[in-house]
Design a protein that fits this description.
44% of the residues lie in helices and 13% in strands. The chain is α/β, with parallel strands linked by helices. It has a single domain, classed as 3-Layer(aba) Sandwich (Rossmann fold), CATH 3.40.50. Strands 3-2-1-4-5-6-7 form a seven-stranded parallel sheet, with helices on both faces. The longest helix is centred in the middle third of the chain and has 21 residues. The N and C termini lie far apart (56 Å). The mean pLDDT is 93.
Length: 274
């Protein structure tokens, strides 16, 4: 089988939440480069429409359109589902990327930071997926399943709070939801996998990745020596959503440059060196 056949998404329709910026935009472009028609959604419809125009101007084999979508409330999820169903009768790929965070030190972390973060990052992700199940089931098969890709985080695997306690907990929840959905939806012709990214350039990480100097400093703390790049996300999406990923479900892909396998120092180094 040729590389094109393994990774082509020609004729596929995708929805990427939070698709106007950061990892969502990287994924949308990667899906378009493989030939998919991609709908990007966020609370700011104008931003999505503008980004869709920019992506369409790249001359990729696929196309893009922007729409409004807020997964932070049940009404917002219902409106997005209705909008998707009004625009297409097939949905082959759902990327649950929309997310938010909250930072405060231990001792000052507010109660409200839990409800807000969990509502978007976990509850919204779950509710959108279950309400799009009819169109996903209709679009998938045993040989070519529909694909759900959730965006977790390396902070959902490693003991990294960094002042974002509810965010880290919400991403651990995303990983578990991914495994549960993978088990329950496999018989319906749907695969469910997740990305667990490390540091990438985005609005959420702008405090640490806004310029090249800051990115270099962050990269020094990553085992592979750099922050993530757009190609890292695009490659994962083309694999997970193409023929090459059709037999994979329930996986949490650690797109983190090795952070997920970092540990403490060698316990016996001091004795051996002495």
């Amino acid at each position: 089988m040729t590389p094109e056949a393994l990774f082509s998404l020609k004729g596929k329709v995708a929805l990427v939440t939070g698709g106007a910026t950061g990892i969502g935009r990287m994924a949308a472009e990667g899906l378009m480069q493989a030939g998919a028609h991609v709908m990007i959604a966020s609370r700011k419809k104008g931003a999505c429409v503008a980004v869709a125009e920019e992506l369409n101007a790249l001359g990729a084999p696929g196309t893009c359109e922007g729409l409004e979508g807020d997964v932070g409330s049940e009404d917002g999820v219902n409106a997005l589902v209705a909008e998707v169903n009004s625009r297409t009768d097939a949905l082959h790929i759902l990327m649950n990327n929309a997310g938010t965070t909250w930072g405060a030190p231990m001792g000052q972390f507010p109660f409200e930071a839990w409800e807000k973060i969990m509502s978007v990052n976990a509850a919204g992700l779950f509710d959108l997926t279950q309400k799009l199940l009819p169109i996903l089931i209709k679009s998938g098969s045993a040989e070519d399943p529909a694909r759900v890709v959730n965006v977790g985080s390396v902070m959902g695997d490693a003991a990294l709070g960094d002042g974002a306690y509810s965010y880290a907990a919400s991403k651990a929840a995303v990983h578990q939801i991914t495994r549960i959905m993978a088990k329950e939806l496999a018989g319906h012709g749907i695969t469910v996998n997740a990305l667990a990214p490390g540091p990438f350039v985005s609005k959420m990480t702008a405090f640490a990745t806004a310029d090249e100097g800051m990115r270099e400093k962050v990269g020094h703390d990553v085992p592979l020596g750099r922050v993530g790049q757009a190609e890292d996300i695009a490659g994962c999406m083309q694999f997970l959503c193409g023929r090459g990923g059709a037999y994979l479900t329930g996986a949490i892909l650690p797109v983190s440059g090795g952070i997920q396998v970092m540990s403490g120092p060698n316990l016996f180094r001091a004795a051996l060196e002495g």
